[in-house]
C-alpha cells in the first residue's frame, strides 16, 4: 500500500494546486470576500506542505518500497490484489458510517459547489476593525492611560494615542526610563506588540510574516549590540554626557533633568525640584547604576550583579518597543485610515453608525457567491424584488454634487462643511492643480505629483 499512499498524496497535491489556481483567478472587490479568498489559499497551501512532507517520508522508506515491489513482481499478483481488497473490506466493516468524500469536489470554490477553508473570518475581527480596514486600540488606549507616568496627568485622546503609540523616546513620551521597568508597562507593550502582530497575520495570511519578524529581531540585535536603541543607551556610555549637571534635551527649549528624564520650562522650576523626594531617589538609583557599570568595565567583564540583571530587563522592554515601531511602520496605511475613520465617526450619530455598519455588511455580502449570499440572507426570496431594490439603490440623489463616501453614497452636508471640502487650495508647484479641502491639500505634499514638481524646480 506504500505506492498507493504515494499516488494519493501526489493526486491530492495536484487537486490542491488546482483549487488554489481557481481562487487566485477570482479577484473579489469586497474586503471580506478578499480575506476569505486569502485565508482559503493559505489553508490549501498549508495542506500542500503537509502532503509534501508525507510524500518525502514515504520516499525515504527505501526498504519498504523494495519489499512492496518484490511482493507485486514475484508470486501470483491476484493473491496480493485480493489481500489488499480484503483489508479494504475489513476497514469498511469496522467503520460502516464513515463518510465518503468526493475528491473531484473537495477543493472546489464555493461558487463551484465546494466547501470553505477560511474558518470563521467574521469572528477574526471586531466591528471596529471592519474586516482588517482599521485598528481597534481602544482597550490598549485605556491600559496606556493607567500606566505609571501617565496616570494622573492630562489624558490624551484616542486620536492623539493613534499618532504616538509607537513613540517611546523624546518629548512625545511622558514615561521615564525607570517607570518603563514596571510590570504594568512591560505587560502593556507586550499586549500592544501582540495585537499588531495578530492584526498583520489576520489581514495578510499569504505573506511570509515569519521571515519579516525574523528581520525585525536581527535588526534589534544589531542595534542593541551597537548601543543605538533610542532611549535605552547604556549608562556607561552616557556617563560623560550626563555627569556635568543639567543638559538641555527633549524639545531643546527647556532644562533637562537626566535623573528624572524630564524637561522643565525654565531654570527656576528645575532648581526647585532638586530637593524633592522623587528627584533624590532617581539620582541615587542612577548613580548606583553608573558605579556598577563602571566597575564592570574596569574589570573587563560585563556586570553580573544587579546592574546586569537590570540591563537584561531593559533589553526585554526595548525589544518589544522596537517590534511595535517596526510593525507600526509596516502598517502605515491602516494606521492613517484608522485615524481618518475615528475623526469621521466622531461627528456621526448612533443611527448613522448603524446604517454604515449595515451598508458594510451589504457590500461584503455582494462579493460572496450566490449560494453563500442566499444562505446568509436565510435562503429563498424573490429575485425580481431584489433586482428592483438594486435598481432603486443605484439611483443616488445628489443635487449638491457632494463627494461620495466609501459606500458610493454622498457624504452628509454637515460633514462636507466641517472639513471645508468646498474651499479650493491651488498648488503652483503642481501646475495650479486645485485640491478641495485643507486635509487633501496638506496630504498631497508627500504624493508623487508634488514631489515631481519639486524635482523639476531643482528643490
TrEMBL record:
<dbReference type="GO" id="GO:0008270">
    <property type="term" value="F:zinc ion binding"/>
</dbReference>
<dbReference type="InterPro" id="IPR024598">
    <property type="entry name" value="SF3a60/Prp9_C"/>
</dbReference>
<dbReference type="GO" id="GO:0000398">
    <property type="term" value="P:mRNA splicing, via spliceosome"/>
</dbReference>
<dbReference type="Pfam" id="PF12108">
    <property type="entry name" value="SF3a60_bindingd"/>
</dbReference>
<keyword id="KW-0597">Phosphoprotein</keyword>
<dbReference type="InterPro" id="IPR031774">
    <property type="entry name" value="SF3A3_dom"/>
</dbReference>
<dbReference type="Pfam" id="PF16837">
    <property type="entry name" value="SF3A3"/>
</dbReference>
<dbReference type="Pfam" id="PF11931">
    <property type="entry name" value="SF3a60_Prp9_C"/>
</dbReference>
<keyword id="KW-0479">Metal-binding</keyword>
<dbReference type="InterPro" id="IPR021966">
    <property type="entry name" value="SF3a60_bindingd"/>
</dbReference>
<dbReference type="GO" id="GO:0003723">
    <property type="term" value="F:RNA binding"/>
</dbReference>
<dbReference type="Pfam" id="PF12171">
    <property type="entry name" value="zf-C2H2_jaz"/>
</dbReference>
<feature type="compositionally biased region" description="Acidic residues">
    <location>
        <begin position="383"/>
        <end position="392"/>
    </location>
</feature>
<feature type="compositionally biased region" description="Basic and acidic residues">
    <location>
        <begin position="332"/>
        <end position="355"/>
    </location>
</feature>
<dbReference type="GO" id="GO:0005681">
    <property type="term" value="C:spliceosomal complex"/>
</dbReference>
<dbReference type="InterPro" id="IPR013087">
    <property type="entry name" value="Znf_C2H2_type"/>
</dbReference>
<feature type="region of interest" description="Disordered">
    <location>
        <begin position="282"/>
        <end position="315"/>
    </location>
</feature>
<feature type="domain" description="Matrin-type">
    <location>
        <begin position="425"/>
        <end position="456"/>
    </location>
</feature>
<feature type="region of interest" description="Disordered">
    <location>
        <begin position="328"/>
        <end position="394"/>
    </location>
</feature>
<dbReference type="InterPro" id="IPR000690">
    <property type="entry name" value="Matrin/U1-C_Znf_C2H2"/>
</dbReference>
<dbReference type="InterPro" id="IPR051421">
    <property type="entry name" value="RNA_Proc_DNA_Dmg_Regulator"/>
</dbReference>
<keyword id="KW-0862">Zinc</keyword>
<protein>
    <recommendedName>
        <fullName>Matrin-type domain-containing protein</fullName>
    </recommendedName>
</protein>
<dbReference type="InterPro" id="IPR036236">
    <property type="entry name" value="Znf_C2H2_sf"/>
</dbReference>
<dbReference type="InterPro" id="IPR022755">
    <property type="entry name" value="Znf_C2H2_jaz"/>
</dbReference>
<comment type="similarity">
    <text>Belongs to the SF3A3 family.</text>
</comment>
<keyword id="KW-0539">Nucleus</keyword>
<dbReference type="InterPro" id="IPR003604">
    <property type="entry name" value="Matrin/U1-like-C_Znf_C2H2"/>
</dbReference>
<keyword id="KW-0863">Zinc-finger</keyword>
